[in-house]
Amino acid sequence: MKFTDITGHKAIIDSLREAVDTDHIPHAILIGGQEGIGKMRLARAFVSYLYCMDRHDGDSCGKCPACLQNAHHNNPDVHFIFPRTGASTKSTDTFLPQWNDFLDRHSYMPKEEWAKTIEAGNTVPVIYRSDATEISRTAALSSFAYRYKTYVIWMPERMQPQCANALLKLLEEPFPDTIFLLVSNEPDKLLPTIFSRAQRFNLKPLSEAEVAGILTGEGIAYQEAQEVAALSEGSMVKAFDMTGEGGEIKEFSAIFIQMMRLAYTRNAGALRMLSDSVAAMGREKTARFLAYCARMTRESFIFNLKTEGLNSMTKAEADFNVRFSPYINHKNVERIMSEIQRAHDDVLRNANARLVLFDFMLKLMIQLRK
């Protein structure tokens, strides 16, 4: 990965490049921003530039031994730390083959795909105290081949409290030529003391033009790329999901349409089975489905205003809303949105998702008739 492979974020690239060129590299760097905007791609490009033996034109060469090692994930002085499962029976090394393959296939780092890769199920992957112990042990050793030793920590907000406290001690008293590179989707969830000890770079969402450019480069037709870019919220994870055959957005759209039709016809039995099916997707995915329901409810209400340019929907969503939107109106929109938010919050608080969803769908059944 090179700086020229990164879309957008030019000012931050310039700052990171200057830090290496002037040999003023912070011992802790925090790259934050929403999922799917290229944070890990940028981190990997920075690592390549840091270790490159023949930098020129403001970028790594891509050909020297260090660049080749980084490209194949076998630089002995670069360590990746990432959320996983099985603290008592598995080490990070157990997941390295899956991790390396994941980096190659999903460079925009969709966390849901990583959870599937390690078969996490309903378990939320975390970074364990044992990971911090291993960092502490290896950081005290001399580097193998290069001047710097680098720890790239993906989603540090998933660190267990004991792990975060142990990492804080390392940041407070860093070893020489040791760099911690934190790549976070939610930097506000880090310990304030960790947050304050890192030089922070906050990445903005990609522009619609940048998203569309990446999609067309992947072979997506121009018109579809433009439509998807408008809905992506600057995230390539969302964009790729919308263009994929079995994408989550398409899955959620089909469930939403089915739910609304069953609720309107007051088919409580079928809604009960649907709530069981949605809950079986797992807690985090269920929460994302409810967030999708909130978006579609807003879009349906806005659709009734008949004002072009205010809606952001796929063609399939727009086609459904032609018939459905009249049922979301000023009499029920606030109550429906409130019930969606309540269900979303209850699911994330570990309430029984099946009961929460069925209760929500029954209330939806009443509201759609207003």
Note down, in words, how this protein is organized.
The chain has 370 residues and is of the alpha/beta class. The chain has 17 helices and 5 strands. The longest helix has 21 residues, at 283-303. The protein starts with 9 loop residues before the first helix and ends with a helix.
Question: How do you describe this structure in short?
Answer:
This protein has 370 residues and is an alpha/beta fold. The chain is 53% helix and 7% strand.
SSE arrangement:
Blueprint: H1 10-21, E1 28-32, H2 39-51, H3 65-71, E2 78-81, H4 96-105, H5 111-117, H6 129-139, E3 149-154, H7 161-172, E4 178-184, H8 192-196, E5 199-202, H9 208-217, H10 222-231, H11 236-243, H12 248-264, H13 268-279, H14 283-303, H15 315-324, H16 333-348, H17 353-367
Parallel strand pairs: 1-4, 1-5, 2-3, 3-4
| Count of helical regions | 17
Judged by helices, strands and strand pairing, the structural class is alpha/beta
Poorly predicted spans? none
Number-wise, the strands total 5
In helices, the fraction of residues equals 40-55%
Return Rg in Å. 23 Å
Shape designation = globular
Strand content: 5-15%
End-to-end CA span:
55 Å
Arrangement of strands in the largest sheet: 2-3-4-1-5
What profile does the largest beta sheet have? 5 strands, parallel
What is the string of helix and strand elements?
HEHHEHHHEHEHEHHHHHHHHH
Mean pLDDT: 90
